[in-house]
Amino acid sequence: MKRFIFISFIFLFAITSAFAQTFTITATAGSNGTITPSGAVSVTSGGNQTFSIAANTGYHISDVTADSVSLGPVTSYTFTNVTANHTINATFAINTYTVTATAGPNGSLDGTTPSPVTVNHGSTTSFTFNAATGYHVASVSGCSGTTYTNTSNSVSSYSYTTGAITGDCTVTATFAINTYTVMATAGTNGSLDGTTPSPVTVNHGSTTSFTFNAAIGYHVASVSGCFGTTYTNTSNGVSSYSYTTGAITADCTVTATFAINRYTVVATAGPNGSLDGTTPSPVTVDYGNSASFTFNSDLNHHVASVSGCFGTTYTNASNSVTTYTYTTGAITGDCTVAASFAINTYTVTATAGPNGSLDGTTPSPVTVNHGATTSFIFNAATGYHVASVSGCFGTTYTNTSNGVSSYSYVTGAITGDCTVTATFAINTYTVTATAGTNGSLDGTTPSPVTVDYGNTATFTFNSDAHYHVASVSGCSGTPYSNTSNSVTTYGQ
To answer: Are residues 90 and 101 in the same domain?
Structure first.
């Protein structure tokens, strides 16, 4: 019995195998992708068949249809319990990416290259970026392109091409302000201050400042350039000046010039003199130079002093200097030369001859101004008198009086050095001898007689007959008295 059953199974299997049905599934793929398996694929009735769909690089599955019914972009599909012929078809499309361009501050994307744009896989695209006024395109990068960098003010517009696009990406542009080289130059006799070096780099629209210093004895005459307001000056006091440019829009140069300081030199003449017309005043003198002035004194005066303006002071007491030319020192500022004048003075000497002297209250010599007078007092020695005084344009004085033992002499108007001379004479006195009654003066000794001070005189007296000389006295002599009859003659 068991054998019969086994044989029956084999028989039935053989019959089934001999009569199994197969079906064909036709698998096709468009370009840029694959379907596996592909072509005519046989499937036994009731069997299952799976297909794998893959897009090439840069592409994607667009759609899969089974028996013309869209399955969508599936990557795998299985036919199950196949009991009929089928078809499966895969289509593919290139990948597209969104490429965005962004412009940073102070620039923009040109309207001819809008953003974002859609770009096929592997393709490139370009964007043009424009810098704002006063700026330049500094860099552009992104989307697999070659990064662009730049410092040139002249690149105000730049067209950037991406690399082969393989994904969504962004191109970014940055912009930088234009920078300019600003130079400062100082002409001769001045320099640029070390606190404001040159050249300097200045942003578009900004300003910068430079300080210029004049050399000693010079001033800043002018500064101009780089869109600033031109500065001009004639003042010696401006030895340093800070100049600010205008808004910088290009490379440029600031230029400073310098001029020598000039000073006003005035010459003044005091009373009794004047400045010679050949050297007028005031005059303008360059720094470090000198000027000369000639001064003239009035009649009977002389140039006494000249000073000022850094020159060597001149002083003088000589009547002969009626004109003087004075040269200043090196001029370094406004200044004044001043001249003074003095009246001519003369030496007046008083001399006393023998037997007299000049009184101590009127010493000699004395200095006397032109046209003035002076006085001298002369004193005679004891027993003498002032006999004469003369000289120095005064009225000559003469005298024989014993009573003039002192005399004050006034000169005339003095116009030159001169001498007053006094002479003295001894006092003389009249000595008179008188004889009383009964006697007489001897004829050998007349009376009166003139006797110089300090000398003596002798008189002889004779008595009459029968008389004798009783006494003799007077004139500072020793009195004589006598009672002797024998003295009939006496010499006193």
So the answer is: no
